[in-house]
Structure formats: C-alpha cells, structure tokens
Amino acid sequence: MSEKTYEVRTYGCQMNVHDSERLSGLLEGAGYVRAPEGSDGDADVVVFNTCAVRENADNKLYGNLGRLAPMKTKRPGMQIAVGGCLAQKDRDTIVKKAPWVDVVFGTHNIGKLPVLLERARVQEEAQVEIAESLEAFPSTLPTRRESAYAAWVSISVGCNNTCTFCIVPALRGKEKDRRTGDILAEIEALVAEGVSEITLLGQNVNAYGSDIGDREAFSKLLRACGKIEGLERVRFTSPHPRDFTDDVIAAMAETPNVMPQLHMPLQSGSDTVLKAMRRSYRQERFLGIIEKVRAAMPHAAISTDIIVGFPGETEEDFEQTMHTVREARFAQAFTFQYSKRPGTPAATMEDQIPKEVVQERYMRLVALQEEISWEENKKQVGRTVEVMVAEGEGRKDGATHRLSGRAPDNRLVHFTKPDEDVRPGDVVTVEITYAAPHHLLAEGPAKAVRRTRAGDAWEKRTAQPQQGAGVLLGLPKIGVPEPLPAATGGCSVQ
After folding, report:
1. What stretches of 100-255 show up as alpha helix (H) in DSSP?
2. What whole-number distance in Å separates Cα of residue 46 and Cα of residue 100?
3. Strand 402-406 relative to strand 412-416: parallel, antiparallel, unpaired?
4. Other CB atoms closer than 10 Å to residue 278's CB: what's the count?
5. pLDDT tens per residue across span 343-363
6. Which of 11, 34, 185, 308 has its CA 20 to 30 A from that of 358?
7. Once rounded to an integer, what is the mean pLDDT over residues 453-464?
C-alpha cells in the first residue's frame, strides 16, 4: 500500500504560515508524506489554511474548493480540510456551500486535524469543530519547518486591540502570552538544529508581557535572545506604536544579534483617521518613535503598512499620510486600498470613499514611496554588508550567475556568486555597488565567505530525500526569509 500524501495551501499572514508548518508536522506525525511539487490537489488530503482579512478571501476559497470537487469524485478516499481565520468565522457555512469538505477546524484547535480527518473517514460525514479559546499553544505541536536556517518562533497569539478595520481579534481571540522560558527553550533547540535566524512572531509582539503585568517583558526577551550562543539574527513582527517603549529601542540597539530593522504599521498619518480606526497613537507619537529608533540605530531600515481610503478620509487627511511618509522615509511600505471586511465596524461606517478616489490616492502614495525607497537604497551604495545567503530569493540568479540574500537590515541583496561553494545559511561579505527601489546589487567579488552551522544544516537537510516542495502560499508571497511583513490592511501582523 502506497503512503498517503498531503498538501497544505496557505493564504494570508505569517501567523498562518507558521500554523501551516505545524499542520504539516501533525500530518507527517500521523503518517502522511508531502505530495510532490505541482500536485495541484492530487493528494489524499488537501488542507486550506485560510485568511479572513484579504479581500474576496471567501470567493477564492469556494472557487478553489469547487475545482477540487470533481477530483474528489474521481479519487475515492480523498479528504479536504479547511482551517484558519475564514473557517473560524464562517464555520457551518463552509460545509453548506461545499458539502464535499470533510473537516472544518478553527484557529484555536489546529492540533485536532489528524483526529478530525480520521473521524470524518470512519463516520463518513463532515466534522466541524471550532474551539472558542486556545487549546494548545501552536509551538507545542510538531512542525515541518520550511527553512533549515531561519525559523518563526511564536511568542503570543491573539490581540487585545479593537482596530475598526480588523476582524483578526474576533477570530484569534484575546492575547495569550507564552512563557518566556518556553520561548527561549524553543530558540535554543532550533539553534542546536542549525537555525541561525529567528523571527519572534505575534499579532502585537511588543504587548508581550501583558498577561503577567510586566511592561518590559518584550525588551527582556530580546536581551535574553542576545545571550543564546550561535543565534546570529533576531527579528520580530509586528509591533504596535502604542506599546513601543524606549526600553525596546534600547534593547534593539544594545543587543548585537537583534537586527537594525523595524516594521512599524502606520496605517494612516491623519490623527482624525487614526481615531476612527481606533489606533491609539497619533502622527506625532509615531514620528517620535521613528526619530528615537534612528538616533539609536542610524542604519536601521524601517518599513510600514498603510491603508488608503479609509471611510471618511478627506484629501487633507490623505495629505497628512503623505507628509508622514516624507518625514519617516520608510525603506519599504506595504500600501493597501481600503476595502470592506464583513464583521468589522468600519464596513458599516458612513462616508465610504469612491473606488476611483481611493485608486488615485493609492497611486500617488505608491509613487512617493517608490521614490523614497530608491533614494534610501542609493544611500547603501559603497557600504560593506554581511549577507545571509537565501534559498530561492532571486528569480534571475541562475541567468545572472548571482546569489541572493538579506542584509542585516533585511534589504534584499543580489551578489556575484563567489568562486568557492556557498550554501543557504552561509554568510557572504560584499560591497553594495548599485541600488534599485526594491533591491541592491553587489557586483564585485566577495570580500569574505563564512561557512556556518546553518549552511551545514541546509546541506544535511537537502542531502536527505524530501517529498515535494514548500507550503503553497497566497499572494503577496510570505515566508522565511521574505521581507517582513506584507500586511493586508488588517491587523499589524499580515
């Protein structure tokens, strides 16, 4: 009897990507093997890990489910499962609209997937199980990581904010923090396996500690990461300006392995719009944080999320966003046109902005940010940086005889392939010779090549026979070590 195969399709934020690594680990622990790359639904179990934040997420899901229906008819024993935020939100609706679905599970009980699949098989009827609160912290579940050298580490789940455009808190619940000792133990175990870069992950990472009443818990966690031998790079996403305190800036600046990179969601530069969004900070506070970060870390690269066309946004409000962007000089901005999300207060607000007005403002903002990104990247020319070699970052690397990777500030660098063999996870020192708006080039010979334990781990992993490829991701592409994070106009971790 041949082994049963599985495929996981992931949409949305890096929290979902992390959950999908756990779902893959659970299925492999239950005896399934990953379906070969390009199987496109031709697997014994197909799991959709959904997002409720992205526009038309439900239409996309039901379209994909519809395409699998005839495949399931032809393939006895095939099972389809739907999990994630849309499953948490729609629950029984999914089985009504797509009665060929076998399992529906929510964001709080991903650990139940293998059991629910077996129950659906035995009882020959759909299993819908949506927990209202977290049953097990995701990081306690088995995992199949998508990278040998970089890893997500979840420090909290849920969110205590009530942003009017975001449905995530309703679907992932109130913030629940993980014990610091458990977080550090997981990081140490990952480093022992060869991981050299970790990203601390949470819906609002710098609110970490609210469970235990320690306002400085997150900065203490960053400093503790600095003491882990072999851990070269620490990143985190996403913080909230309300909770971003001076002790965190100090910890970033004083902890060598915490990278000089910050993703700080702005959403709007208008105080009026921020108030309507229920974002508990104002333009002056936001720019003050940016100023402090730059004073402590002059070479820090700062990125952001911005929503254009929130209900009631006037031309004057939009100009305040443009002003904030000019002042902040983001290395990168993930910009989104506001669209209604059912179940959010903003969806029923008056003064919804006409689509053509939103589009015109969006184009102006994108043009401004493109100009700033290019100018900021040009400042990198002549700098010498250490690039951690990535796997599959540059689509043209084969044709150009280049490799790609991330600088400490998370900028994407394409560099000339060194004469000696280098592997993903190794570190190459290069001089930046050219800048484009979204990447840097290092066209000269490498100044140094450092083979790492992370490279060893990648080599060991790729030497072992692997079934198929990585998790199939929705757009925009998110995964280790893509730029962090690509927000979706929802909460600040997208």
Report:
1. 113-123, 168-172, 180-192, 217-225, 246-254
2. 12
3. antiparallel
4. 14
5. 889 989 999 999 999 999 999
6. 11
7. 88
